[in-house]
Specification:
Chain A: This is SpoVR family protein. The complex is a heterodimer of chains A (about 525) and B (about 425). Chain A is of the alpha/beta class and about 525 residues long. Helix content of chain A is about 50%, strand content about 10%. The chains are: A alpha/beta (about 525), B alpha/beta (about 425). Strand 4 of chain A pairs antiparallel with strand 3 (about 75-80) of chain B.
Chain lengths: ~525, ~425
């Protein structure tokens, strides 16, 4: 039976007779969880996984639903959208339409992982390997997380944010706060610095600096608007072409926080909170394939290592492999269950193949990955984990073999054509093109429309103009007007949005909408 | 690598999301109110023991963000290729929406097709219903609390709080225990003491084998040992304690019958009936509080009255004129045959648009004052019309003067105006 199981690290002399499994039943106890964690930690150390300390929290299904609906944040401010999330989660769960995730893990130091009490012991072990050693080491090692998030400060910051928001609710009413939060959420994806590194967040400093900042902010805003009415030197607005801001700004929330004329300080503070959170989640949005792939690769590798060491039984492995297989299942494009590429499958396949390329390279691998083929796989995988995000990771490491295994193909949809066109498939001429196209699919600025602050009519009606640069003529979706209303609520004056393709305005949105004459 | 810390959080509060859930309900209260209102229309008036499933068009609760729309030129990579080769052209499906093309998996053509559905609890259901009826808070609480209880004595228990300690029982138990444990020893002590006295009074050289002094000593030692033993028996011990035990018993275990009388003549529209239904529900809710068993009798009338089931009561239509006394007569007949006032608390709620044949109204007044009101606990009448009072109203005003404690009437156009007719009833029972 053990031959049926892939045992990549098996030393030749290992035999089931030497087995001393940690446990044989499927019921877990705290003592057993501790023992498994210890053994998994030893295995992880063999492979050099570097993690934050772990905090494993066993919770009930209801608590898991709570955790779900606050996007995994252990503390969060109150908002109806989290309630909506909760209602849909609990309904789906109660009707058995969906299982809950086995775990949720939080990028914090210590790294908090939630385990559901319903899980069987093999599932708990899988979750520990996946979350506490896989995700955890990713949070600690990946450059995006290292640069953009501060794992040791996030919990304190969340507490600060919750208290601040609830303080505002007391002073200004739930409705007023809810409105600001609604509007901030609408712009949240455009509330991040994509290139500039933000200052680390710290709850203590936030509180300390708050009073100071309140005063300062308001003064700065006032300064900007005080210089307005001097129309003396160059009153011709066409000639005076100097825009404000001089360079387009990608972080809409930041720009509004600092420049919106009418906002009160608490409103600016709430904008700041939302964009800080957006920034915190930004790395996760860019590393889904890598992060899940890495964690999946490690739960697979670590538990197999446990099996080689005789620490788990065949029954344990069968249950584990069944879950693992379900996690990495990729329905084909024509399946009714197809909903895009499964990030677990893609990431797991790439990392697994990377190891193969290091250990048993073929001629093809040597041609495609001359620097990697035959190298130390643990080092290579760590390098890949640490220095890339989904887009560049796929561009760099997606091998022809994985493309063949997943039978990838690219389809072009041009609204000026009557047919879809297959532009590349998993064959020799298609590999590079396919890889490029798939990588681009994970580029956030390709996934989300590129919208920046273009100009504020400082001397005129104070209107804010946003500029959308379409890629491949793809227009904005149907929510656009609605989002503009939120932008208008924050800005306080007219908001315009122009789609400018190669110098010509191809589409315009205005809030309030222009009067029809 | 650090140590792992394992925490059991299961006992921490699980209702972390309660506030957010409440925020959601608050935001969509108009939708929910409407759903509750529809549910009231749909449900039986005795069916208020459960929550309700609410659905809101997804479009109304979407959180908008900037995203790509349909159109333009895009490419997507998909898995599971079977037969395609580069350069293949595939026809686009009708309607322009390809499988999984672009970001929007949600069908852009089927706007509003899918609904966001969720459950509200019975408590929330009642809250929305009460909002509709504008019930005062105190009354809401009274109606929602499950049941009132009396505490009745039910013997003694070995466990309990100090306040319920029964001193007499406990001491009696202690006494018995002391007797049980010490009685035999005390008897022995008495025997030994008698022996000792005898020994002391006897001559010293009775038996040479035992010296007289040694025997006295031995007896005295034994007596001292036994006395110490007896002394160690505690005066009162944990096991002696007895606590009075009380059992919860549902308070008034009486039965009530509720008569619903409604005019179903042609002038009563469905809107009138829906308002009337709320009126009956409120009475039912109130009665449920105070009675274990409630019978509901539905009597509908136009020119003649008929006892019907709830379905027919609310939803079948009739035309023609109105003779209210027919319903009152039928009600009286039913009371006489089935609901003896000695065994039943009788309540009645009458809803009408006020129409009646003019010469019938005095008959109604007389029926009420003479035969019905002496039998019933409370009679509530609502005239559902925004217009001027009708003849019946003036007749009932005179009835009210005679029975101010058990008769109430109110003219209403809105459900929120129903509550005042019950005010006295609530006050009376609340006291």
């Amino acid at each position: 039976m053990s031959d049926a199981i892939d045992r990549p690290n098996a030393p030749a002399n290992d035999s089931p007779a030497t087995r001393k499994p940690v446990s044989t039943g499927s019921e877990w106890t705290f003592e057993l969880i501790r023992q498994y964690d210890e053994e998994i930690a030893k295995c992880a150390a063999e492979f050099g996984l570097d993690t934050y300390p772990n905090q494993v929290e066993v919770i009930s299904a209801e608590q898991m639903m709570d955790a779900y609906s606050s996007v995994g944040m252990p503390v969060g401010y109150n908002h109806w959208s989290f309630g909506k999330q909760f209602l849909s989660t609990s309904k789906g769960y109660q009707r058995g339409q969906m299982g809950l995730a086995y775990e949720i893990v939080i990028n914090s130091n210590p790294c908090i992982a939630y385990l559901m009490e319903e899980n069987t012991l093999p599932m708990q072990a899988l979750v520990i390997a996946h979350a506490c050693y896989g995700h955890n080491s990713f949070f600690k090692g990946n450059y995006l997380f290292r640069t953009w998030t501060d794992a040791s400060a996030i919990i304190d910051y969340l507490v600060f944010a919750r208290n601040y928001v609830s303080g505002c609710e007391e002073r200004h009413g739930v409705d007023a706060v809810e409105q600001i939060l609604d509007s901030c959420h609408a712009l949240m994806n455009h509330g991040v610095d994509r290139y500039k590194r933000p200052a680390p967040i710290s709850a203590a400093k936030e509180v300390l600096r708050q009073a100071e900042r309140e005063e300062y902010l308001q003064r700065r805003v006032n300064d900007l608007w005080r210089t307005i009415p001097k129309m003396d030197e160059d009153e011709d607005p066409i000639k005076r072409k100097k825009r404000y801001p001089e360079e387009p700004q990608e972080n809409l929330l930041y720009f509004i926080e600092k420049n919106a004329p009418l906002l009160e300080t608490w409103q600016r503070e709430i904008i700041r909170i939302v964009r800080k959170l957006a920034q915190y989640f930004y790395p996760q949005r860019q590393t889904q394939v890598m992060n899940e792939g890495w964690a999946t690769f490690w739960h697979y590798t670590l538990l197999n290592r446990m099996y080689e060491k005789g620490l788990v039984t065949d029954g344990f492995m069968l249950e584990f492999l069944q879950s693992h297989t379900a996690v990495v299942y990729q329905p084909p494009f024509n399946s009714p269950w197809y909903s895009g590429i499964n990030p677990y499958t893609l990431g797991f396949s790439i990392f697994t193949d990377l190891r193969r390329i290091c250990e048993t390279p073929t001629d093809e691998d040597r041609e495609w990955f001359p620097d990697i083929a035959g190298t130390d796989w643990v080092k290579t995988l760590h390098f890949a984990m640490a220095n890339f995000k989904d887009e560049s990771f796929i561009q760099q490491f997606l091998s022809p073999k994985v493309m063949r295994d997943l039978k990838l193909f690219a389809v072009e949809d041009d609204d000026q054509e009557d047919n879809y066109k297959v532009t590349a498939i998993h064959d020799e001429p298609g590999y590079r093109e396919l890889r490029e196209k798939l990588a681009r699919q994970y580029n956030l600025s390709y996934r989300e429309p590129n919208i920046q602050v273009w100009n504020v009519d400082v001397r005129g009606d104070r209107s804010l103009t946003l500029r959308h640069v379409p890629v491949n003529r793809v227009p904005l979706g149907k929510d656009t007007e609605e989002v503009l209303r939120h932008a208008h609520r924050l800005w306080g004056f007219d908001v315009h949005l122009e789609s400018v393709d190669e110098g010509t305005v191809v589409d315009e949105h205005h809030c309030p909408p222009p009067l029809k004459s | 690598m650090g140590m792992t810390h394992i925490v059991d959080r299961r006992l921490n509060g699980k209702n972390k999301s309660a506030v957010n859930r409440e925020r959601f309900l608050r935001r969509y209260r108009h939708h929910i109110k409407k759903a509750v209102s529809d549910a009231v229309h749909r449900r039986s008036i005795t069916d208020i023991e459960r929550g309700e499933s609410i659905s809101i068009p997804s479009r109304d609760i979407d959180e908008p963000v900037f995203h790509h729309g349909q159109g333009g030129h895009r490419e997507m990579v998909h898995p599971g290729n079977q037969e395609f080769v580069t350069g293949d052209r595939l026809p686009k499906p009708e309607g322009g929406e390809g499988q999984g093309q672009g970001q929007g998996q949600a069908s852009p053509d089927g706007e509003g097709m899918d609904e966001f559905a969720f459950q509200i609890t019975q408590e929330e259901f009642l809250n929305f219903l009460f909002d509709d009826l504008e019930l005062p808070n105190l009354v809401r609480k009274k109606l929602k609390d499950t049941e009132a209880f009396n505490y009745v004595r039910s013997g003694f228990s070995t466990q309990g709080v100090p306040a319920k300690l029964d001193v007499v029982r406990s001491l009696r138990g202690a006494h018995a225990r002391r007797l049980g444990l010490g009685g035999a020893r005390k008897k022995k002590i008495r025997e030994l003491e008698a022996q000792l006295a005898e020994l002391k009074s006897a001559t010293a050289d009775l038996d040479a084998a035992f010296s007289h002094k040694d025997q006295v000593q031995a007896l005295e030692d034994e007596i001292a040992r036994l006395k110490a033993n007896v002394k160690r028996i505690p005066f009162i011990d944990d096991i002696d304690l007895r606590y009075r035990q009380h059992l919860k018993q549902p308070k008034p275990a009486t039965s009530a019958v509720m008569f619903c009388l409604m005019d179903v003549s042609g002038s009563m529209t469905q809107m009138h009936k829906d308002t009337a239904k709320r009126f009956f529900i409120l009475l039912y809710l109130f009665l449920k509080k105070n009675h274990k068993k409630i019978d509901v009798v539905f009597i509908r009338h136009h020119t003649s009255a008929k006892e019907v089931d709830e379905e027919e009561f609310f939803y079948s239509r009739e035309t023609g004129g109105t003779i209210v006394s027919s319903a009152l007569k039928l009600m009286h007949k039913i009371i006489e045959s089935r609901y003896s006032p000695a065994e039943w608390n009788i309540y009645a709620a009458q809803a009408s648009d006020g129409d009646n044949w003019n010469d019938d109204s005095p008959v109604c007044g007389k029926l009420l004052t003479d035969s019905i009101l002496p039998l019933v606990q409370y009679y509530a009448y609502v005239e559902i019309t925004p217009q001027d009072h009708q003849m019946l109203w003036y007749e009932y005003e005179r009835v009210q003067e005679q029975f101010p404690g058990s008769f109430a009437q109110q003219q209403i156009a809105e459900p929120s105006e129903i509550y005042p007719v019950f005010r006295r009833l609530f006050e009376r029972k609340a006291a």
